[in-house]
Amino acid sequence: MVSPILLSPADNIVVLPAAVSAGTSVLIDDANVTLTEDIALGHKVARRPIAVGEKILKYGVAIGSATRAIEAGEHVHLHNMKSDYLPTYTLAKERAFSA
Amino acid sequence: MSASPIISGWLRPDGSKGIRNTLLVVYLVECAHHVAREIQFPFREADVHLIGFGGCYPNDYSFRMMQALCTHSNVGGVLLVSLGCEGFHRAELLSAIRATGRPVELMVIQGEGGTRTTIAKGREWVQSAREKLAAVQRVPMDPSELIVGTVCGGSDGTSGITANPGIGRAFDRLVADGARCIFEETGELIGCEQIMAARAATPELGGILTASVEKAARYYATLGHGSFAPGNADGGLTTQEEKSMGAYSKSGSSPISGLIKPGDIPKSGGLYLLDVVPDGEVRFGFPNINDNAEIAELIACGSHIILFATGRGSVVGSAISPVIKVCANPETYRRLRDDMDIDAGRILEGHGTLDEVGNEIFQCVCDIAAAKRTASESLGHQEFVLGYKSFEPIGPSCHPTY
Questions:
Q1: Which helix (H) or strand (E) holds B297?
Q2: Chain B contact set for A85 (CB, 8 A)
Q3: What is the rounded CA–CA span in Å between residue B249 and residue B54?
Q4: pTM of the entire predicted model
Q5: What is the ipTM of this complex?
Q6: How far apart are alpha carbons B266 and B255 in whole angstroms?
Q7: For A4, which residue in chain B has the nearest alpha carbon?
Q8: Chain A CB contacts of B189 below 8 Å
Q9: Which terminal CB of chain A, N or C, has fewer other CB atoms within 10 Å?
Q10: Residue B1: is its pLDDT beyond 50?
Q11: Chain A residues within 8 A (CB-CB) of chain B?
């Protein structure tokens, strides 16, 4: 079973060391959490429920804020968090390289 | 761990030692690019590299960059190719290079009689200069005499976990040995300024480091873009500050000895932050238009070798100094294996630790310095780009340890 990486004890997210498909369980803080969507290698998953406006902590440091409530085991990315500094620029999905 | 191989450096007249003996063909305006490229082309696999500056307007920064690059310890000789009417201060550059004792020649296309004659004459000069370069004295060189720069490009969610902290470990070891190590891109340190400032050699330097990142944040805010590409988000990075934290880990854990700007060569061993964001009001557009602009600045600060961390999979190398590609993502490593030197992403699959990867990077630096070729060198990569910027000179509090 994939064990996501906890980079700092203070963090509310963990990082996937491998791609994980929807319906697969991963081990977060010794508990089995089933992911509800496909999530790629290197992406973030909520370690516990996160409230709107709460800081997202990675490496023990705030890397932005939640833009809506996030459940434990949910993918944490552009759709539910944002930078506290600068907007993030992305290409439309169909143009993005998918590996 | 194997012992460090003996590095046999090329001794330059100013006493510096290079790990490569490159001859540069340099165009001083885009209008001279084709002629310079034609001169260089037959020698492209014989350590003759092409660099240049495209602009016609003169600029102190680009002159300073060119001077630093043409007198770099890895460079043995230089052919300058000018159209003739451009604004670049070619006579000053020529005499600055000549003053270092290197073989140098200036060819002005309008004076030589055009494209065909300049190409012929240029190739002839390169051929004769190569014979002079072959006679340059070789001397023993210790890893502690190296200047090593680091950059990341095509970052993803793995970069800050494997390759970047792995480079940080290698940096810690190099700095402990007395080498000069440089990390950069203040725009990719937005969000880390406080923890970084705490590592400064003096509180005053800490304030300078913080101010350099605040300057970057203002600059990028005006431009409306951070140092963040769409591929970063595809790879799992969501925000500038998240990317910053990953990038920051390349610096390792040594104290920070000073802040330098493009063209400043650190004078003593230690870890230095290179401030790449121009001073003053926002002019000339993005600070660095791509990774190679950052690499050129690290080389202009004396870097013999560049450690390049990549997650998505950059394939670039550089003119002048070898680029070691440290691959953060195990999937990328399998896909782009020929382009990579170090598989740092194996940590994620349970093969090895950060310390092991750090030692492997250190060993690779020693091997490349001892004449082994990097993946990008073997594949013929010699990317180079240089644009317009403006900087104020650094003050004495930027290098309190001298």
A1: helix B291-300
A2: 190-191, 217, 226, 239-241
A3: 34
A4: 0.93
A5: 0.87
A6: 15
A7: B348
A8: none
A9: N
A10: no
A11: 5, 7, 15-19, 40-44, 56, 58-59, 61-64, 76-78, 81-91, 96-99
